[in-house]
Design brief:
This protein is α+β, with helices and mostly antiparallel strands. The protein has 2 domains: 13-54; 58-203, Umud Fragment, subunit A (Ribbon). Helix content is 25%, strand content 27%. It has helices at 8-13, 15-20, 31-55, 83-86, 101-105, 176-179, and strands at 57-61, 76-80, 94-97, 114-120, 125-129, 132-135, 138-139, 153-157, 162-166, 182-183, 187-196, 202-203. The strands form 2 sheets. Strands 1, 2, 3, 4, 9, 10, 11 and 12 form an 8-stranded antiparallel β-sheet that branches. The longest helix has 25 residues, at 31-55. The chain is elongated.
C-alpha cells in the first residue's frame, strides 16, 4: 500500500504517528501543575501586602476616647508610614507611636500603639496654664479639642530628637503632660484617612 492509498484517519488514530508527525501530546497535566500559576500569584500578592503594611501604610483601630472629638472609639484609619522616613513630624499632625520606655516600664507592650497630636517640636518651649497651651510663649489656637485643659504644666523645653504630644480630649488623655516627651524614633506613622464609619470617612 502506497502512502497515497493509506486511510487518512490511520495517523489521527495512532498516537505514535502523532508524535512522529510533531503533534503535541494531549495528556492532561496534573492538579498541582495546573494550580502552580495560581499559587505563585497568591504568594506574590501576600508578599506585596506585607511589604505595603510594613513600609507604606496600614489600617488602625481607635480603642480609646483620648482623641475625641477628632477621632472616636471604633474609628478605623489608614496610617501612612513614608513621610517620616523623609522628614520630621510637623506641628498639628496626628501621629501613631509605640509607647516610650517609661510606659513600657508600667506594663505597656512595645507592640501597643498610641495616637496623639504633635504640639511641640525639638527646641520649642511648651507650657499649659489657664486652660491654654503655649508654645514659645504664644497661645496655640486649637479648635479641635474637646475642652480646655484643666491642669497646669511647664514651661519645659522639648529636647532634641523628641516631641511633645497631646490628645485632643485634653482632660482624658495619657499623653506627654503625664509621661514626658516622646522620642521621634518611636513614631511609626501619621493618621491620614478615616475609612470607617462611612458617614465620617475623610482626611484627618
Amino acid at each position: 500500500m502506497t502512502p497515497e492509498q493509506r486511510n487518512p484517519n490511520d495517523q489521527a488514530q495512532n498516537p505514535q504517528a502523532q508524535v512522529e508527525a510533531g503533534t503535541p501530546s494531549t495528556h492532561p497535566p496534573g492538579f498541582w501543575y495546573k494550580q502552580r500559576e495560581n499559587l505563585v500569584l497568591i504568594a506574590v500578592a501576600l508578599v506585596l501586602a506585607l511589604a505595603i503594611r510594613v513600609f507604606v501604610a496600614e489600617p488602625r483601630f481607635i480603642p480609646s476616647d483620648s482623641m475625641v472629638p477628632t477621632l472616636a472609639v471604633g474609628d478605623r484609619l489608614v496610617v501612612e508610614k513614608l513621610s517620616y522616613r523623609l522628614r520630621e513630624p510637623k506641628t498639628g499632625e496626628i501621629v501613631i507611636f509605640e509607647p516610650p520606655a517609661i510606659l513600657q516600664d508600667y506594663g505597656y507592650g512595645k507592640d501597643q500603639v498610641f495616637i496623639k497630636r504633635v504640639i511641640g517640636k525639638p527646641g520649642q518651649i511648651v507650657a499649659v496654664h489657664d486652660g491654654i497651651v503655649f508654645v514659645d510663649d504664644r497661645p496655640v489656637t486649637e479648635p479641635y479639642i474637646a475642652e480646655p485643659p484643666a491642669y497646669d504644666w511647664g514651661p519645659y523645653q522639648v529636647p532634641q530628637s523628641e516631641i511633645f504630644v497631646m490628645g485632643d480630649n485634653r482632660n482624658n488623655s495619657n499623653d506627654s503632660h503625664v509621661w514626658g516627651f516622646l522620642p521621634e524614633a518611636n513614631v511609626r506613622g501619621r493618621a491620614l484617612f478615616r475609612f470607617w464609619p462611612f458617614d465620617r470617612a475623610g482626611w484627618v
